[in-house]
Amino acid sequence: KMTQQMRDLQLAQARKPPGPSSPNAAKRLYRNLSGKFRVNYTSFDEGSLAGRGEKEKLRKSYLFQSNAALFEAVELQDLDRVQELLKQYSPEELDLNTPNSEGLLPLDIAIMTNNAPIARALLQAGAKESPHFVSLESRSLHLSTLVREAEQRVNELTAQVVNEAPNADCSEKEKQLKAWEWRYRLYKRMKAGFEHARVPDAPTNVHLSVASSSSVQVTFWEPLSVNSAVVTKYKVEWSCSPTFSPLLGEAVIDKLKNLHFTIRGLVSGTAYYVQVSAYNMKGWGPPQASVPPFAIPSNWREYDGRAPRRRGQAEALDHLLSQVKTVHQHCVCHEPCKNQPQSRKHSVSKSLKHLFHPGSKFLKTLKRGLYLTAIFYKDDNILVTHEDQIPVVEIDDTYSCLLMQDFLWFTKVSCMWDEILWLRQCVTVSQSSCSCILQTRFKMLLAISQMQGLLGIQDLGQVFFEPVKDKQGNILIVTLKEVKTNQTFESVRWVPICKLQTSRKSVSSPEEPTALDTLLISVQDKLAYHQRSSHALSPGLYLGYLKLCSAVDQIRVLVPERLPNILCHVKIRSNPNISREEWEWLQKMASVEEPVPAEPEAETSQNHLFQELQVAIKELMTLVNIPLQEAKDFRLYSQEVLDFGGQVSFLLLLPPSDDVCTAPGQNNPYTPRSGFLTLPLQIFELGEEK
């Protein structure tokens, strides 16, 4: 494979049309001629490779050619070739920051020939400038030396070609002369580029925001000027004084993929001024102060001293569950069922024996009843039984109770797959009751245990948000789990989904498909839902839209199909933090009965948030298909900022109080466009927690 790649590289170079005055062969020949500034390349000669395997020799030779190809592409200003090499090889494989025989790096050549696109591509890949250039004088001297030596070599070769009779040696010297002439022109162009360059202008759009109670974040753009040399790094400085004297700290940013920097370790409640300056080969340009000119590290909770809503809740719940388990260890439900009626004890015993009996297996067909099916998938494959059936076990063949409450209870149980045996023991004590609900839920736990035992795995995944039903009275509760490793399961095997769908013989009519047929037809939709449910939002502050609709037995919430675990939303900004000053301004806006659309003072964080909210509200109203004029009756939820893990936060936009939840039969004049669905509120809450 490596040999073939070397051939491809050589063929690609051979196919490249030579420049009018720069034959590739002459250039490659030149690389072997100049030795004055040669560094490290001698490690690739035959002596240093002695005693190593042929494979190692081939690899180093191949990488050396890749490095030479990168230099050649930069010198020829071939952007496509540079991008291809940067994509194909890592910076280490290309020796991206190892000087060549002239003491130059690829980035040096790009910036001194003022080739901004190639320079930016190299900077994105992590390229640096040569460490030889410690000052403007050293760079100027180095370029002058290269130009002078190249000119001298051209003169020497010209004299030799003119004075010698035509022969093989003369032809070789003509090739060398062409290479040195091209090199001479390149060095002169680099020298002229350096001499005509000037320091960069100040960065633009320098914006300062509060990132937390102890940090601020500054974002900025490149300088607008196109006449100066390419910017290779930036400097961020901060101080408690608007004159930046004394200076509290500074940071140099040389990784230019994202032009932002977070200043950490600051004192809450103290104002910090920030400025940013740019650097190119001529030095540092003038600094640009941020807008707003200063920021005060804070968080919205400091407005009224509110503690995080979820602080300690997970630990408290774990402790409570541990206490419950401890109490139940001495409960009658863990003793022999001596207090139960004989017939009931025999029935339960029979059920438990049936669970572990070798004859326990997956169902092939459905009768009228309630069933559990588990869908495990990996890429485009799905787990099926040896009969090419999605795993199904029976919960109750006489099911006639209200499903929704039982179904929602089942979804909560899915958060405790590892505790099913303990839950089953706890529910057993209530078997003497004639409660249909308790009987059904105990059977649910038995079915879960049976599925876990047959598959040999406890975690059955996430419950799909609604059961699959058919007209024959069958109900399927569906769990979904993505398998990302090569796990092996008992009694099942992997089959491509498309093969399963085409090979299965339906036993129902298209007009009245069974629940299993419906499940198989819609399996891709369910897998897509499951995958989208696990997606996380990128860090930032979002504006969410809360819209509910009620039915007889449940409340449902409107969510986008692409992210069903999150409310309908648009992104306000990348910084998730709301500062104390911003929250105070929002509180004042919320307390006014008739808000006046007056903007806050210019160049303040409140003004910037005001502008961001205006844009976000317009975008959100378009998204959910609500006329913008209706937004005047909407309001921001001003009780708190919804915080999710510190990296994602939400401001909620609420409809008028009468329209937050649409009642059964109530007409909703504004129906969202396609791409939305409604989830039971309890399902949404579980998905949000995950």
TrEMBL record:
GO terms for biological process: establishment of mitotic spindle orientation; regulation of establishment of bipolar cell polarity. Residues 1-26 are annotated as: Disordered. It comes from the Eukaryota. Residues 202-299 form the Fibronectin type-III domain. GO terms for cellular component: spindle. Gene3D superfamilies: Ankyrin repeat-containing domain, Immunoglobulins. This is ANKF1 protein. The gene is Ankfn1.
